[in-house]
Amino acid sequence: MQTEAGFQLHAVDLMYQRVPGSIGSWIVKGPAGWVVIESGPASTWAALEQGLRALGVLPGEVSAVLLTHIHLDHAGGAWKFAEAGVPIHLHHVGSPHLIDPSRLERSARRVYGDRYDALWGPMHPCDPDLVHAIGDGDVVEAAGLRFEAIESLGHANHHHAWHVLGSKDLFTGDAVGMRVPGTDWITVPMPPPEFDPAVWSTTLDRIAAGPWDRFHLTHGGTVTDTHAHIAQLRSSMATQMQWLERSRGMEGRWAAYAEVLRESAAPYNVPDQLFQAHASPGRLDMNLSGVDRWIANRQ
């Protein structure tokens, strides 16, 4: 994709767990080099490296890596770039976890148990000199382009979207949710411990008012009808929140929640195989835990 702002944009499907479109990295070719947005987990490094090589670039030739946040599906493989000497830019709250990932890894291993290595792969420390802590509104200059960090909390308290200044393009991470590829059905990731619907709503207000008309999602490709996308995300989040609050203590709650999601996906003709992949047990458990924790913190 050639943008009107003068850079080329390439999507690399990391084929996470062999599910098309589950996690993607964005490769930006500017007038003076290459930038990678989202490393994905270490378990998909081979797919990302292959995607870069197909474009004629080696990992060590990348000018910079920009991460939206530190969750493993977005940043777990960033250390591979650091090993090659590439600078990495991310939210200042998340940056210490690249320098010393031990706490992050311990927490994830408690959640995923024996599945951790197959799902995410290893995490190694990054050279502190290559990890750049970024604040809201900071601008990263790389590959002849200028990327502005747009703080976008609610899904996590260490989240930035990235805007290429002079363009209509916003790389959103999870700030505007996730979309099942080939459909317009949005899934809402509400993980513990930082999910906060009120903060997320403020983020959506800011994004809706911004100078961009293309969202590039880490999960789900490019969205051009940005206002409809945000409206659906707000509606879906509100509906799920109401159901999850009412259903606390319900027998068979997990299966009932899966049916709520299935009904919401039906108007969008989501194939059953894709539905099961994107509304997986792990993601349902994540949302149940995230909302329950948010409710408990309010009490």
Structural commentary:
This protein is an alpha/beta fold and 299 residues long. The chain has a single domain, classed as Ribonuclease Z/Hydroxyacylglutathione hydrolase-like (Metallo-beta-lactamase, Chain A), CATH 3.60.15.10. Helix content is 37%, strand content 20%. The protein contains eleven helices and 14 strands. α7 (197-208) packs antiparallel against α8 (226-246). The radius of gyration is 18 Å and the shape is globular. The mean pLDDT is 95.
Q: Topology of this structure?
A:
Blueprint: E1 8-13, E2 24-30, E3 33-37, H1 45-54, E4 64-66, H2 72-75, H3 78-83, E5 88-91, H4 96-99, H5 102-112, H6 116-120, E6 131-134, E7 139-142, E8 145-151, E9 160-164, E10 169-173, E11 178-179, E12 186-187, H7 197-208, E13 214-217, E14 221-223, H8 226-246, H9 253-265, H10 272-278, H11 281-298
Parallel strand pairs: 3-4, 4-5, 5-6, 10-13
Antiparallel strand pairs: 1-2, 2-3, 7-8, 8-9, 9-10, 11-12, 13-14
Task: Specify the CATH class.
Answer: Alpha Beta
CATH architecture descriptor name: 4-Layer Sandwich
Number of DSSP E strands: 14
Question: How would you sum up the major sheet?
Answer: 6 strands, mixed
Number of helices: 11
Which percent band covers the strand fraction? Answer: 15-25%
CATH topology: Metallo-beta-lactamase, Chain A
Overall domain count: 1
What sort of overall outline do the alpha carbons produce when their principal axes are compared? globular
Strand arrangement, largest sheet? 1-2-3-4-5-6
Poorly predicted regions are none
CATH superfamily: Ribonuclease Z/Hydroxyacylglutathione hydrolase-like
Structural class call reads alpha/beta
State the helical fraction.
25-40%
Could you state the order of secondary-structure elements as H and E? EEEHEHHEHHHEEEEEEEHEEHHHH
Rg on CA atoms, Å: 18 Å
The average pLDDT score comes to 95
Distance between the termini: 48 Å
